[in-house]
Amino acid sequence: MPLQDPREMRAAVPPGRRLMGLDVGTKTIGLALSDTRLVIASPLDTIRRRRFAEDMAALFSLIDKHEVGGLVIGLPLNLDGKDSPRTQSVRQFARNLLALRDLPAAFWDERMSTAAVTREMIAHDMTRKRRAEIVDRVAAAYILQGFLDATGRTTP
Asked: What is the mean pLDDT of residues 27-41?
């Protein structure tokens, strides 16, 4: 399934399924999950990147386990909204992922997500070691929550 407009993608998620947020980095992939009502995002896990096939095996295992119905992939744009050096690698990662698994998916602007999350963790006196352990999955939750808030719909 090709990448979609965010609102169309959200509408394509089967009822009772979750969205998974991805913060794709060169060394890690931060993961977050929504609730089944697509209202709240929570940090899930961090995949330490190795080979693409191993990364996908770990990711697909979590997608299946948590009954994920769509993906929100953070897109690292520059502050001016133009592509950054990492943008093309994230786009290619998404194309490769979606060639293996047919899921609704959309990109979401991740500008300043890691910086915002890091500032919050520092404000809460979190140690540098603990921040390093969780920053990627918390950034994924920040990205996913932004998507949920911006594309929200009224659910019964």
From this structure: 97
8 A C-beta contact, residue 28 and residue 46: yes
The helix/strand/coil state of 38 is coil
- Count other C-beta atoms under 10 Å from residue 33's C-beta: 24
List, for residues 92-104, the tens digit of each pLDDT value: 999 999 999 999 9
Mean residue pLDDT of the chain comes to 90
Number of domains in the chain: 1
Tokens 């009772």 label which residue?
A: 16
Read off the pTM: 0.87
Give residue 72's domain range: 6-150
CATH number where 13 lies: 3.30.420.140
- The separation between the first and the last C-alpha atoms of the chain, rounded to the nearest angstrom, is 28
As a whole number of angstroms, the distance between CA 4 and CA 26 comes to 24
Q: What is the mean pLDDT of residues 107-122?
A: 77
Classify the C-alpha dihedral 152-4-82-87 as positive or negative: positive
The HSE-up count of residue 61 (CA atoms within 13 Å, CB side) is: 9
Q: Is residue 1 in some structural domain?
A: no
